[in-house]
Amino acid sequence: MSKGEETKTRIIQKAAELFNQQGYAGSSIADIMRVTGLQKGGIYNHFQSKDELALQAFEYAIACVSQRTRTALRSQRHAIERLKAMIDISRSYLNNPPIKGGCPLLNTAVESDDAYPALRDRAQKAMDSWRHLICHVIENGMKKGEIQPKIDADEIATIIIVTLEGAIMMSKLYGDDIHMQRAINHLHQYIDNLL
Asked: Are 93 and 181 in contact, with CB atoms under 8 Å apart?
């Protein structure tokens, strides 16, 4: 990797953490300069705009989340255990997030809802990817006889995602992991009923 590529990667990583903690709108170019240690020209040498940097920083943050998910799934073969592994990794988002600031998908989805259409589109694509992964696990489980047939995989994916993201929000809001623990316990019971 060239020095320029290393610098660009470092900018993306630092900006991803900054945006995930302060939000895109709440992070100025001066903030990006502070966390990267670069001048404005050094940043704009690699990115045409703050918007371009935000999109690449979001992609980096989602890649960090995806890597954690892939690692959790690697050791699981049964569909129920794979679903539980995906649920269990959400617990780490509170005390050991894949990127500082919590769940980048939740943070970006909330912030980009109306104000940043390009970022909102990326958040939707990331959410679609997560939903499709859950559906894929469920559908494969049905084919193998590990999960009851005729289950609505997309409905289950929605329930899992909204429960986990709501638990992350409540746990962060109250500074209390009990909300996440309750959600995980509930989802484990819910998933066991799919057998």
From this structure: no
SS (H, E, C) 63-97: HHHHHHHHHHHHCCCCHHHHHHHHHHHCCHHHHCC
84 inside domain: yes
CA distance 115 to 113: 6
* pLDDT tens, position by position, 30-57: 999 999 999 999 999 999 999 999 999 9
Residue numbers of the domain that contains 104: 58-192
Q: Model confidence over 164-183: pLDDT tens digits?
A: 999 999 999 999 999 999 99
Burial 181-195 (b: 16+ CB within 10 A, else e): eebbeebeeebeebe
> Do residues 191 and 137 lie in contact, with contact meaning Cβ atoms separated by under 8 Å?
no
Q: Say what the pTM is.
A: 0.91
